[in-house]
Design brief:
Layout (H helix, E strand, L loop, with lengths): L3 E3 L5 E3 L2 H12 L6 H18 L5 E3 H15 L1 H10 L1
Parallel strand pairs: 1-3
Antiparallel strand pairs: 1-2
């Protein structure tokens, strides 16, 4: 299970899946997606990402962001565009 995320500046911070979910929801709400749809999308993507990195103790923030963008591009391109602006 991922315990830490390594930021661009090298700083380690605790990993919280909820941070990914909040970012996706914020981006989704900037589109025409409803709050419920945004929550479902955020849950699905954050769960998929958490499962894909479950064996790592730490993950680079850039890798995590790339995974989120890739998933959003596949599932909700308009949200992906909003996420990129958010970042």
């Amino acid at each position: 299970m991922v315990n830490f995320i390594i930021k661009r500046d090298g700083k380690k911070e605790p990993f919280y899946r909820g941070t990914i979910k909040r970012g996706i929801i914020e981006a989704a709400l900037k589109t025409d997606m409803s709050e419920k749809e945004a929550e479902v999308l955020a849950e699905k993507i954050s769960e998929d990402i958490a499962l894909s990195i479950k064996n790592a103790n730490e993950v680079l923030a850039a890798e995590l962001k790339a995974r989120v963008v890739s998933a959003l591009d596949a599932m909700a391109p308009d949200v992906a565009r909003a996420w990129k602006k958010y970042q």
